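Table S2 (continued). Query chain:
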Amino acid sequence: MLVGQTLTDVFTVSCWGWRNCIGSQTGLSYSYIVAAKNTTGVMPLFRSANHSVALRFPVGDSNDHFRSQVTVVVSDDIGESEESYIYPVTVSL
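Corresponding output:
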C-alpha cells in the first residue's frame, strides 16, 4: 500500500519488464491513470515513453478510506495495450 498526502508526497510509479510484439522496449508508451475503486470516472495523470515517473496523486475517495486505484496502460506503436493495476493508494489531506 502506498500512503501519502495530496500534492505533497511524490510517488514513483514504475512499470518494468514490458516488451512489444518483437521483444523490444522501443515504441512503448505508458499512461498513468487514477480512479476511485469501482468507478467509471478516471483522471489521467501522465503519459510518457518512460516506464518510471514521479507523480503526485489527488485525494482518494473519503468513503473508501481515501484509497484510489492507479492504473498503468502500456501501449505499443501498433495500438495494442495492456493494463496493470496498483491498488490501494491512500492519499489524504
